[in-house]
């Protein structure tokens, strides 16, 4: 908990917003889903590969043209995560991703025993991956636009 005032530069999350249309959205809507930036970095390459216009600092729109590539990238990521079978492969995975060192640093701060709990953390990442896939499927099924906004 931070007992201090802070500005928007101190925000550290990504919003997945499917409340708007192809032109606009309702910022931080109650229907939106959120993910901490450090965890999002595990999946950021999926969003970059699916939409060449992706920019963390600018709201990026995903729609019928980009949903299938995004699903494919997220499914590939899930396969990689599911193949992690030891702390060594967990560590290798994290060292190979954008800002993976920051993810490890936050794990160390949060849980000094994180090395023994690699399997639990891997399962949590797989769960987030599955939720992202479900979010894309819902956007497709309900003919919605998905906005991805970094804060």
Mean pLDDT: 94
**What structural category arises from helix and sheet content?**
alpha+beta
Largest β-sheet summary = 4 strands, antiparallel
Computed over alpha carbons, the radius of gyration is: 16 Å
| Unreliable stretches | none
Strand content: 5-15%
Q: How many DSSP H or I helices?
A: 5
Total separate domains: 1
Along the chain, the helix and strand elements come as EEHEHHHHE
Number of strands: 4
Distance between the termini: 18 Å
Helicity level? 40-55%
Overall form: globular
Provide structural commentary.
- It is a single chain.
- With 151 residues, the protein is α+β, with helices and mostly antiparallel strands.
- The chain has one domain.
- Helices cover 51% and strands 11% of the residues.
- The chain has helices at 37-50, 64-82, 87-95, 100-110, 118-141; strands at 13-17, 33-36, 60-62, 146-150.
- A four-stranded antiparallel sheet has the order 2-1-4-3.
- Helix 2 (64-82) packs antiparallel against helix 5.
Notable characteristics:
four-stranded antiparallel sheet, 11% strand, alpha+beta
Short description:
The protein is of the alpha+beta class. It has 5 helices and 4 strands.
List the helices and strands and how they pair.
Elements: E1 13-17, E2 33-36, H1 37-50, E3 60-62, H2 64-82, H3 87-95, H4 100-110, H5 118-141, E4 146-150
Antiparallel strand pairs: 1-2, 1-4, 3-4
